[in-house]
Amino acid sequence: MTTAAIIVAAGRGQRAGGRVPKQWRALAGRRVADWTIEKFRGRVDHIVLVLSEEDQGAWDEFSGTDLILTQGGSDRSGSVRNGLSALDAFAVQKVLIHDVARPCVSTQIIEQVLDALETQQAAAPGLAVTDALWTADGTVVTGTQDRTGLFAAQTPQGFHYDAIVAAHAAHPGGAPDDVEVARAAGLEVAIVPGDADNIKITRPEDFSRAERILGTDMDVRLGNGYDVHRFGDGDHVILCGVKVPHDRGLQGHSDADVGMHAVTDAIYGALAQGDIGQHFPPSDPQWKGAASQIFLRHAVELAGHMGYRISNVDCTLVCEHPKIGPHAPAMREEMARIMGLRADQVSVKATTSERLGFTGRSEGIASLATACLVKP
Ligand code: MG
Predict the structure, then answer these.
(1) What's the 21 CA to ligand 1 centre distance in angstroms?
(2) How far is the CA of 276 from the centre of ligand 1 (A)?
(3) How far is the CA of 162 from the centre of ligand 1 (A)?
């Protein structure tokens, strides 16, 4: 069963204030759209991002990624139709249509909607209205509206792909959401339980509310790594991706980058995905002399596929010589480059072991690392 999500991100979001559309505004350290996209990564097979032609920066940024990009239409329905067309060649059976301005959507809701499509023609989250509802003339109450049977509509709204494509093709336009389009085509739409935290960012004050919600349900993971390589003949060592001249070299199956190995293992550790030796067996000749950035890149990509981003890494090198301090800035830059992070997210520091033990006797270099991974 092939699944997809269409994230509609072409709107201009005037009511939320700010100089840029709300989906590109910062929210808890990322942008609204980044949070929303992340919620669907790993939960559907394909993600379509519908973008305005005015958001050139986003086109540049996301092209060549795992996202399918397509241009927005003249209104929301037009954008959804373009999103559906972009999935034409992917043999999708179930499609979720989601507003980019709902970054707090839970994975539980996404799964409930997908599950409901096993037995239903369409499904969408709805929240039973619990507040009393008034009618008013300006700011004066003129009556009370019966709330029985009223639900607040949320997204993602889920459909069988062929059915919603046909429903959109037949609809005259102007529908506020895709449930209405589906109903107009005679489809029955089941309500799955919505979530009060699945707010749509609409007004300026919604940003701080969304930040509070996102801050409470993050999955934060730590991992540690430890590695040792012994000295042998040579005229340099590779530490954290940087070639450092030395009167000895480090021995190992790969390039023996002890610092990068510890960081790589820390990331695997945070993901509970074993260690370097498991992913790149030393018995396999293809890794002989390999550049360790192959291992680090693999760990970073695995984190991304599992929905985690790396918040920071901290690496300590333990040796008497060579002196690390002069090279530490270059090591941080190089590790950040390989991991796609900023240098201020990467720490490389060093200590001696007071001439004690194997590192003190300069028999080899040890390294310890910690990685912090975050899943929204
Ligand atoms: Mg190693």
Answers:
(1) 47
(2) 8
(3) 51
Q: Based on the fold, state whether residues 203 and 230 are members of the same structural domain.
A: no
Q: Are 16 and 41 members of one domain?
A: yes
Token pair in block for residue 226: 């430890």
Q: Are strands 94-99 and 122-128 parallel, antiparallel or unpaired?
A: unpaired
Q: Which amino acid is at 209?
A: R
pLDDT tens, 131-169?
Answer: 999 999 999 999 999 999 999 999 999 999 999 999 999
Ligand 1 centroid from CA 218, angstroms: 31
Residue 183 is part of which domain span? 3-216
pLDDT tens digits, 303-354: 998 889 999 999 999 999 999 999 999 999 999 999 999 999 999 999 999 9
Provide the domain count of the chain.
2
> How far, in Å, is the centroid of ligand 1 from the Cα of 355?
22
Residues 229 and 199 both lie in one domain: no
For residue 256, pLDDT over 90 is answered with yes
Distance of CA 292 from the midpoint of ligand 1 (Å): 9
Domain shared by 143 and 65, yes or no: yes
Query: How far is Cα 224 from Cα 365, in angstroms, rounded to an integer?
Result: 17
Tell me how far the alpha carbon of residue 221 lies from the centroid of ligand 1, in angstroms.
23
CA of 297 to the centre of ligand 1 (A): 15
Ligand 1 mean position, distance from CA 259 (Å): 8
**Is the same domain home to 138 and 224?**
no
**What token pair was written down for 176?**
């506020």
104-140 per-position pLDDT tens digit: 999 999 999 999 999 999 999 999 999 999 999 999 9
Helix (H, G, I), strand (E, B) or coil at 336: helix
As given in the structure block, the two tokens for residue 38 are 């992340």
For residue 149, give the CATH number of its domain.
3.90.550.10
257 C-alpha to ligand 1 centroid (Å): 7
Helix (H, G, I), strand (E, B) or coil at 190: strand
* 328 shares a domain with 226: yes
